[in-house]
Amino acid sequence: MFRYIVKRIFLMIPTLLGVITLTFAVIQFVPGGPVEQMMLELKGRGEASVGHSESSGGGATYRGRQGIDEERLKEIKTLYGFDKPVHERYVQMLKQFATFDLGQSYYQHKSVWELVISKLPVSISLGLWTFLITYLISIPLGIKKAVQIGTRFDTVSSVLILVGYAIPGFVLGVLLLVLFGGGSFLQIFPLRGLTSDDWAQMSWAGKVLDYFWHLVLPITASVLGHFAVITMLTKNSFLEEIRKQYVLTARAKGLSEDKVLWKHVFRNAMIPLVTGFPAAFIGAFFTGSLLIETLFSLDGLGLLSYEAVMRRDYPVVLGTLYFFTLIGLVTRLISDIAYVMVDPRIQFDSQSGGGA
Questions:
Q1: Where are the beta strands (DSSP E) in 113-256?
Q2: Across residues 42-55, what is the average pLDDT?
């Protein structure tokens, strides 16, 4: 197992390098970079100044009308680091990432780490509660559907789950705001943010209640679409185990259905779910819906990444991509380790392919 872990860690390096290199190469051909945006901004200011001077009767002209002079252009390129050749910028980026230095944002005058950490509370709030609520409801529901397969409960719950899965989270969020957020009907829940304006003056109990009160609508919109996948996976996993020979043998020995289900079936049926816990738990923090964050005015990592792409804030784009990719690779390794811990029959060391 130790050899497998070491091998997987070394395999992460080319994967991570490939993702970063491909993104860096694509960025070089994307129009409207930070230098171009700064030039357009300066030209816009120049045109505004010219218009103001002409309307005042003055004869002055502004150089921005003819464009940016070479000296100013060099200053802008130096400011954003584009005065260096592409290969030097690439090597410098790799050196920074090797020491976990994600660089500085072009526009927000903060390090990428500061921006990521500042957005984490929102992403953690959405991801953690979405994960917990989804699994705490879906697993018992899936087990009950497997035990009562073919009954009215199984049929009705399947229809409701699939209908909920078919509704996009953003559409459901809009509907919840209209119904309960002060739209055309009731004003029960707050429209935006994770806390109220006077949150600092509240008691501890008041802060907790206010926090969860703000989470009701965005979490509801985020959770509903996740129910179908986990519930049906749980149901199918239990059905597959229930039909195996060892279950028939246990029943033939006179064991009660509860003992058969919880002592024999449960452990084996939960293997696919337990091995997915690390990826789902970590991934829930970093895969929050951009539309949900925008709809409920939640400033999280999804919104940060989107704004960085739109503004061509390349250090934020590359830094967050590096961070998310690294987290994803580590999470996949943890999932494989969890698989071995849950099912000791799995031996990755004996596999020539190097892992699942």
A1: none
A2: 53
